[in-house]
Amino acid sequence: MTRLALVGRGPDDEAYARIAPRAAGSTIAAVTDGAQAGSDSVASAPTLGDLLESHADAIDAVIVQTPTDERASHIETAATAGKHVLVKGPMGRSAGEARDLAEACAGVDVVFMAGQIDRYRPDVAAVRASMDAGQMGQPGLLRSHRWQPPPTGGPTTWRLDPGRSGGIFIHELTREIDVAAWLFDGPPETVFAVARGQDSDQPDAAVVHLGFPNGGMAVLDVTTALPRGEGYWSLGIIGADGAIYADDQHNMQLLYAGGSPAARLTSTGDATVLSQLQAFVAAVDNGADASDSIAAGVLALEVAEAAMASAASGRAAARTEDGYALV
Predict the structure, then answer these.
(1) pTM over 0.85
(2) Neighbours of 31 (CB within 10 A)
C-alpha cells in the first residue's frame, strides 16, 4: 500500500478525496497547506517540512501541487527524505530547473514522475488509442483550443503572477505542448508563437505553431481571458487516413475514416485523476523508471520557453542539439 501525502492545495483535492478509497494500492495518509483529504483520520501539517518531521514514517510518496515557483524546493525536500514524487505540471519554471530536479531525484533513487494530466483524460486516451490502432494514419495537423476565465480568488490567485506561475506559456501551454509532442511521437523541429493581452508584460492569450518532421504541424491556442463562466477545450487531428475530434462539451471522441462517423462517449468524472494516480502508484510499486515522463516534462518546458522567446521577438525558433534557438 502506497501511503500518499498531498502537498499544497490544488483543484483536484476533492477528486483525490473521492478516489482514495477505490484507488488500488494507495491511500491518502497526510496533507499540507489545507489540502482536502476527505477523512479526519488523515495526518496534517502546515508545511512539507513539518509533515516530514512529525509523520515521515507514515508516508511513502508525495503529490506536489504547490505554486510553480515553490515546486522545486518541495520536490527536493521530499526526494531527500526518500519519498517518491508526483508533481503537478509544469515541473518547474524552466527546463533547466526541471533537469536539475530530475538529476537530484535520480541521485537518491526515488520515483519522480511529471504530471502530464491531459494524457490521462478519457477523451485524449481514446484519441491516442485510435491512432495506435492505425485508424487515422500519419498525423498531419493537430488543432487544440483551451479557453478559460482567470482565477477568481482563493488559493489559485498565484497563477495571475507570471513571476510565480511562469505566465501563460509555462503554466498553461506546457499542457498542450506535451499532448502535441506525445501524439506526434517526438519533439517539434520549429516553434513560432504570438501572444496578446491588455498588459503587454502579462499576456493572457497565445497561439503556438509547432512544426514536426514529415510536414506535420500543430496549432495550439490558450487564453485565460474568457468572461466568468465555464471554459472550453477541444482537440482535432487530421491524418492521412482519417480525422479525430474530441471536446469537453459532450465528452465525446469522434473518429471519421470514411462511411459514418463513429462517436464514443467518454464521460470524464474522476477518471483523469484516478488514471494518473494509478500510473504513479504502479511505478512506485514496481520500481519503474519514470525517465520518459521526466524527459517529456522537460521537453514541454523547452518548447514553452522557445514559444515565449518567439512571441517576444517575432522570430521562429528551431530545434538544435542544445534545445531551441531563434532563427
Answers:
(1) yes
(2) 26
213: closest CA among 179, 190, 192? 190
Ordered by where they begin, the domains of the chain are 2-117+275-288 (3.40.50.720), 119-269+301-326 (3.30.360.10)
Check: CB of residue 5 under 8 Å from CB of residue 32: yes
CA distance 254 to 258: 12
CA-wise closest residue to 277 among 78, 84, 34: 84
| CA separation, residue 214 to residues 138, 186, 189 (Å) | 9, 11, 10
For the stretch 90-135, pLDDT in tens is 999 999 999 999 998 888 989 999 988 899 998 899 899 999 999 9
Residue 160 contacts residue 148 (beta carbons within 8 Å): no
Complete DSSP assignment for 3-63: EEEEES--TTHHHHHHHGGGSTTEEEEEEETT---S-TTSEEESSHHHHHHHHGGG-SEEE
Residue with cell 488523515: 42
Query: In the structure grid, which three cell numbers stand for residue 263, read together?
Result: 462517436
What is the spatial distance between Cα 35 and Cα 185, in angstroms, rounded to a whole number? 35
